[in-house]
């Protein structure tokens, strides 16, 4: 019997810096059925973190580390790579990857092009929308990570609804069953058992993520909780603004800035609560991880968050930028341990049943085979 060739899928990312989209790519390529699919990864910009991690799990990966997509020499790097890999499917992640991947679809020889939509992206200007809309005809399938994300592209970019599927992000909840002991976990961040409450935020520091709101609220929080501590875990894209604001407000000693952390289990082991005070989101993996880790959650009902968290049942939802609501939510969880336990139990059950990483990958595989008519 003649053996069929594997389907080569090239995951083309705008950045090789690890964020939510890049983690999704890494988790997907690690779990694809290698009897059917041959994954490859290429990143246009960034330091190469994703590239290194893919190679560590024996996935061919390339970091083009482009300086500009307006130079012929730089564009040639991408064209050469696409011609060499000759993928059956290209799946893009990020606007720049979307645009340039679609433009070179024919050159690459790809049979199908898939665009993953990770966020609602309210920051987009008219020219971003125009570029996305103008090249969308070369995309065979859009995959949105939440219904909220799907709706934005139908309403704003005018993508055809029948070409957009929603596949929720997933995690391996089993990885969070055994967290480090609290004393050990807190020691990693220079915290002690007497610090309380400890609130973890696992998100790169960007203005959209709401870190500055937390800092502005901290003086009031310190009045009620003198030993309160926050862990702001993530790369700082504010150019130090968050730390400067904390110093100006006189609360810097109440915040730990560990930078990007490779393994969030220590953060979850150290934290009494998890907070995501964002102004917009797609489908935040960090919230799913906190649910699996058994940490009570406070988040803002933006993007796909309400599709994960039901207010008062699996977490608490507060309006973005609302300092009084943040103060009240923290006080509620701190003073009502029985509510925290109920939220944790419900959240863990929900993430296991509805946001499993293997279910997510199987849905992607199903869409790939469907596109190829197999």
CATH superfamily of the largest domain: Glycogen Phosphorylase B
Report the C-alpha radius of gyration, rounded.
21 Å
Poorly predicted parts: none
* Sequence of secondary-structure elements: EHEHEHEHHEHEHEHEHEHEHEHEHEHHH
Ends apart, CA distance between termini: 18 Å
What is the CATH C level class of the largest domain, in words? Alpha Beta
Going by helix content, strand content and strand pairing, the class is alpha/beta
CATH-scheme architecture of the largest domain:
3-Layer(aba) Sandwich
Helix content: 40-55%
Number of spatially distinct domains: 2
| Residue fraction in strands | 15-25%
Q: What is the fold named in CATH at topology level of the largest domain?
A: Rossmann fold
What is the overall shape?
globular
Widest sheet, order of strands: 3-2-1-4-5-6-7
Number of helices: 16
Describe the main β-sheet briefly.
Answer: 7 strands, parallel
Q: Please tally the β strands and state the result.
A: 13
**Can you give the mean pLDDT?**
94
What does this structure look like?
The chain is an alpha/beta fold and 374 residues long. It has 2 domains: 7-170 and 356-371, 3-Layer(aba) Sandwich (Rossmann fold), CATH 3.40.50.2000; 173-354, Rossmann fold, CATH 3.40.50. The chain is built from 16 helices and 13 strands. The chain has helices at residues 20-31, 49-56, 72-85, 95-103, 105-108, 126-135, 147-155, 182-188, 211-224, 241-248, 265-270, 285-293, 305-308, 323-335, 337-354, 357-371, and strands spanning 7-15, 37-45, 60-63, 89-93, 112-117, 141-144, 164-166, 198-202, 229-233, 255-259, 273-276, 297-299, 316-317. Strand 2, helix 2 and strand 3 (60-63) form a beta-alpha-beta unit. Helix 4 runs parallel beside helix 6 (126-135) and helix 9 packs across helix 14 (323-335).
């Amino acid at each position: 019997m003649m053996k069929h060739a594997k389907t080569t899928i090239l995951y083309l990312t705008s950045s090789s810096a690890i964020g939510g989209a890049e983690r999704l790519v890494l988790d997907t390529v690690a779990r694809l059925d290698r009897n059917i699919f041959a994954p490859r990864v290429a990143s246009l910009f960034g330091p190469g973190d994703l590239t290194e991690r893919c190679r560590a799990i024996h996935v061919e990966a390339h970091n083009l580390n482009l300086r500009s997509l307006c130079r012929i020499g730089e564009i040639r790097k991408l064209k050469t790579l696409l011609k060499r890999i000759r993928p059956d499917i290209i799946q893009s992640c990020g606007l720049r990857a979307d645009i340039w991947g679609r433009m070179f679809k024919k050159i690459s020889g790809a049979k199908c092009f898939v665009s993953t939509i990770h966020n609602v992206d309210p920051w987009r200007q008219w020219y971003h929308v125009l570029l996305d809309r103008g090249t969308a005809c070369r995309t065979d399938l859009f995959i949105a990570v939440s219904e909220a994300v799907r709706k934005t592209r139908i309403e704003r970019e005018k993508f055809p609804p029948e070409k957009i599927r929603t596949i929720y992000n997933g995690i391996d909840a089993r990885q969070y069953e055994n967290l480090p002991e609290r004393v050990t976990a807190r020691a990693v961040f220079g915290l002690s058992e007497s610090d309380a409450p400890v609130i973890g935020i696992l998100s790169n520091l960007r203005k959209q993520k709401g870190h500055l709101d937390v800092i502005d609220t901290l003086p009031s929080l310190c009045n009620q909780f003198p030993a309160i501590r926050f862990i702001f875990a993530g790369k700082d894209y504010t150019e130090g603004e968050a730390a400067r604001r904390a110093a100006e407000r006189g609360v810097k000693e109440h915040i730990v800035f560990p930078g990007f952390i490779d393994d969030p289990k220590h953060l979850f082991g150290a934290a009494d609560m998890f907070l995501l005070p964002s102004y917009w989101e797609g489908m935040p993996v960090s919230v799913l991880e906190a649910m699996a880790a058994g940490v009570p959650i406070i988040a803002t009902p933006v993007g796909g968050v309400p599709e994960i968290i039901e207010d008062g049942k699996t977490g608490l939802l507060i309006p973005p930028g609302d300092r009084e609501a943040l103060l009240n939510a923290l006080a509620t969880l701190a003073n009502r341990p029985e509510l925290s336990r109920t939220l944790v139990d419900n959240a863990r059950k929900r993430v296991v049943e509805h946001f499993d990483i293997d279910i997510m990958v199987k849905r992607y595989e199903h869409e790939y085979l469907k596109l190829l008519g197999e």
